[in-house]
Design goal:
single chain, mainly alpha, 15 helices
Amino acid sequence: MLTPALASSFARIALGHVAREYPNKMDHVLEGPNDVRGPRDLHPIFFGSFDWHSCVHGYWLLATLLRLHPAIPEAAAIRALFEAAFTPAKVEAERAYLDRPSARGFERPYGWAWLLKLQAELLAHDAPWAAIHQPLADAFADRFHAFLPKATYPVRTGVHSSTAFAAALALDYANAAQDHALQDRLQARVCDWYAADRDAQGWEPSLNDFLSPTLMTAACMIRAMPGPTFQVWFRDYLPAAHLGRPESLFTPAVSPDRSDGQMAHLDGVNFSRAWCWREIAAHLPPDDPLRPIAEATAQSHIAASLPHVAGDYMGEHWLASFALLALTASNPTR
């Protein structure tokens, strides 16, 4: 459960990195010598957290914590940060960056999805932040509209290129914003990608995964089809899940080196699986034997990685967001 103490801990972690400009791994194409510019100059809001997308979901983390636990000691600092960050001028600077010809693939699709997930959360707040931020969300929604008709194949990875992860978060936004055009387009494409999947083998994790490719597909399909239809699909997708197979999906991953940026990803796999298993359990019939197994598996995965959310910056700048996804799965008021 997301206790006030844990929420406060996560908030302190995020407040310590969303405005930390360096070190920084930029997604920036140099078109000429004048493009040699720093993160804060290029991105006046999302310049921290080691990379642009991690900064975006650091803001999502803070917004979600503020909504769920508004009395935490860090609440005033979060509000002050948001008041300073979400201004029309700064949002326009972030949006204008997308006009660069070389920025066509900027943060596709992971950063796109997190930006929309952030906007979905801002819409739940009684504050002007969502209205000010909406032009940037609109720009990324437009990018999905342009990209999806061309995305004839999914990207089945456990890293940033995952189309299942991106579509799931974008569908959360479409639902929150009541953007029915985006929702319809996403749901149709997701079913094109995954509706025929059967008997998933669970060949994971890879050494640099932070998502579960297998379970992320299922979590995406929850958002793309009605509950009874999902249940039928899922029985074919993981037919032996109630027997604990494939075993890989029920066994927490272990990072061999949390100071290595890629190997640190494996704690993310654990939070990703916990998030997905909890969502899957919530969408199965009440008497399905997999439900208690899925919940227990989620708990074991959370327990394996929660102690490692902080300690090394390679995980600290992003892991708390994935822990929060797991802790609040299928119950956004938790």
